[in-house]
Design goal:
Layout lengths: L2 H18 L1 H7 L8 H21 L7 H22 L7 H25 L10 H12 L21 H13 L3 H31 L7 H17 L5 H9 L20 H7 L4 H4 L1 H15 L12 H8 L4 H19 L1 H21 L8 H5 L2 H21 L1 H6 L18 H17 L1
Helix pairs in contact: 1-3, 1-7, 1-8, 2-3, 3-4, 3-7, 3-8, 5-8, 6-7, 7-8, 8-9, 8-13, 13-15, 13-16, 15-16, 15-18, 16-18
C-alpha cells in the first residue's frame, strides 16, 4: 500500500468518526459558533474507541476490525436516528457554516502538510519511538485487553496505553500498515489540536462580546487563528532569546530542558520529535474537557433560586438532558485521561471541581450578596462536593478494567528542597507570554 493511499484511508475514517457523532456534538456545544464541529472527531473516536475497548477488556467481544466497524455503525444509527426523530439538526446560520469550512480546511491542510513533511524523515527510530511503536504493534495483535508487554514476555503492558490504543483503533479501521498509522496519528493529533483550539477561542470571544454583533465573524476567526497558533506552534520565549545569542549552534531541545531537573515540553516540540507519548495523545482529550467545562459553566445559571435550595438546584440542572449528558461525557473523558496520561487526570479533575465550584457560586449570587462569602455557602460547597465526587467515581468506573490491572509507576509527589526553587527569570521565559496574556484580560 502506498503512503498516499494510507493517508487518504486514514483521514476518511477520521471524517467518518466525526460525522458519526456530529448531531450529539451540535447538541452539547450548541452555544459554540461552530456548533462544536471541531470536537466531533475526538468525541467520535472516544465513543467508538472506548466502546470497543471496554467490550474487549471485559472479554465480551474480541478487538477486531469487524467488531470496531459494527460499533461505529451502531453509534451512527443511534445518534442520527435520535437526531432525525427529534429534528435537532436544523439549518445552520451562514457564519456557522463559514467557521466549519475554515476548521475543515485547517484540519485537512495541517494533516496533509505535516504528513508530507514527515515523509522526509519517516524512520521510527531514536528517542522513545521504538517503545511507542511497539505498544501499537502489541495492541494491534491483541484480542482482549490489556495487551501483552513487548519488552517483558508473558506480562501485560503496565503503562498508560490508551492513547496508543486509539491510534491503533484508527489504524485498524483504516486498514493501513502500522508504520504508516504511527505517523498519520501524529499528523491527526496536530491538526486536531489546532482546530479544537480555534473552536474554543471562537466560543470564548463570542461569550465575552455577548450582545455585540459588530464584525463578530472576523473577531471569531482572528481569535481562533491566534489560539490555534499559540497552542499548536508557539512554545515559550527560549528560542526568541537564545537564537540571537547562540546562532546556528542553537539546539532546539534546550527549550524543553532549560530549567534543571524538569522537562517542560510543548506541543510543537512533541510533533517534531514524533514520539507518540501519552502527553501528546492527551492534548485533544484535554481540549475536549475544557470545551465540556465551558458548556457546563455557561448553562443552567439560576441566580433566582434561594441559596439553601440544594434539591431545587439539582432539579433545575436535571430539567434538561444537557447537564447529565455533559457530566457523563466529562466523566468518560477524564477517565480516559488517566489511561492516557495520568497527570492530566489529576489536573483536569481538579479544574473540573473549581469550575463547578465557581458555577455553583454564581448561581446563588444576587445584587445584595458579595462574591467571596458566596464561595463558602453551605449549599454551594455541598453541591460542588457531590458533583466532584460523582465525577471522580464515574471516571474510575468507566475505566475500572484499567485501574484493576495497572500498578502505578510513580511513588508519589516529590518535594523540592527549600532554596532549590526555579529562578523567577526562568519561569518568566517559560510562562511569560501566557501570564502576560492572562493578566491583560
Amino acid at each position: 500500500m502506498s503512503d498516499i493511499q494510507s493517508a487518504f484511508q486514514y483521514i476518511i475514517i477520521i471524517e467518518l468518526l466525526g460525522l458519526s457523532v456530529f448531531p450529539l456534538t451540535a447538541y452539547i456545544f450548541s452555544s459554540f459558533p461552530d456548533k462544536g464541529y471541531a470536537f466531533s472527531k475526538i468525541l467520535g473516536l472516544l465513543l467508538s474507541g472506548y466502546s470497543m475497548w471496554i467490550l474487549s477488556a471485559t472479554h465480551i467481544t474480541a478487538f477486531s476490525r469487524s467488531a470496531s466497524f459494527a460499533i461505529l455503525l451502531l453509534i451512527i444509527v443511534i445518534i442520527w436516528t435520535v437526531a432525525l426523530i427529534k429534528k435537532s439538526l436544523t439549518a445552520f446560520p451562514l457564519n456557522t457554516l463559514i467557521l466549519i469550512a475554515i476548521e475543515e480546511v485547517m484540519f485537512i491542510g495541517i494533516y496533509a502538510g505535516w504528513t508530507y513533511l514527515r515523509g522526509f524523515s519517516p524512520d521510527i527510530n531514536g528517542l522513545e519511538k521504538f517503545m511507542d511503536y511497539g505498544f501499537m504493534l502489541s495492541i494491534l495483535r491483541t484480542k482482549y485487553f490489556p495487551p501483552l508487554d513487548h519488552f517483558l514476555s508473558t506480562e501485560t503492558i503496565n503503562y498508560y496505553y490508551f492513547g496508543h490504543y486509539l491510534a491503533s483503533f484508527i489504524t485498524n479501521l483504516a486498514k493501513v500498515p502500522a508504520q504508516f498509522g504511527y505517523h498519520l496519528q501524529m499528523s491527526f493529533l496536530m491538526a486536531l489540536t489546532a482546530i479544537q483550539s480555534f473552536s474554543l477561542s471562537t466560543a470564548f470571544v463570542t461569550k465575552i462580546l455577548e450582545g455585540s454583533k459588530n464584525r463578530m465573524l472576523l473577531k471569531q476567526i482572528g481569535a481562533g487563528l491566534l489560539s490555534a497558533s499559540f497552542v499548536t506552534i508557539f512554545g515559550n520565549l527560549h528560542a526568541l532569546i537564545y537564537i540571537p545569542i547562540e546562532g546556528i549552534s542553537y539546539w532546539y531541545p534546550d527549550a524543553t530542558r532549560f530549567i534543571e531537573y524538569t522537562i517542560h515540553e510543548f506541543p510543537i516540540y512533541s510533533f517534531i520529535v514524533n514520539d507518540l507519548h501519552g502527553h501528546v495523545s492527551s492534548i485533544p482529550l484535554v481540549l475536549l474537557v475544557i470545551g465540556l467545562l465551558f458548556t457546563l459553566f455557561t448553562t443552567n445559571k439560576t441566580p433566582e433560586l434561594n441559596d439553601t435550595s440544594l434539591i431545587k438546584k439539582f432539579k433545575n440542572d436535571f430539567s434538561t438532558k444537557l447537564y447529565p449528558t455533559v457530566l457523563i461525557l466529562l466523566s468518560l473523558t477524564i477517565g480516559a485521561l488517566y489511561a492516557t496520561n495520568a497527570w492530566d487526570f489529576a489536573i483536569y479533575l481538579l479544574l473540573s471541581g473549581l469550575v463547578l465550584w465557581t458555577k455553583n457560586t454564581l448561581s446563588i449570587i444576587n445584587a445584595n450578596q458579595k462574591i467571596l462569602p458566596s464561595f463558602f455557602n453551605i449549599t454551594v460547597l455541598t453541591k460542588t462536593a457531590i458533583e466532584s465526587i460523582a465525577l471522580l467515581v464515574c471516571s474510575m468506573l468507566f475505566f475500572l478494567p484499567f485501574w484493576a490491572q495497572f500498578h502505578p509507576i510513580s511513588q508519589g509527589i516529590g518535594i523540592v528542597p527549600l532554596g532549590s526553587h526555579s529562578p523567577l527569570w526562568q519561569l518568566g521565559v517559560l510562562w511569560g507570554i501566557q501570564v502576560s496574556l492572562s493578566v491583560s484580560y
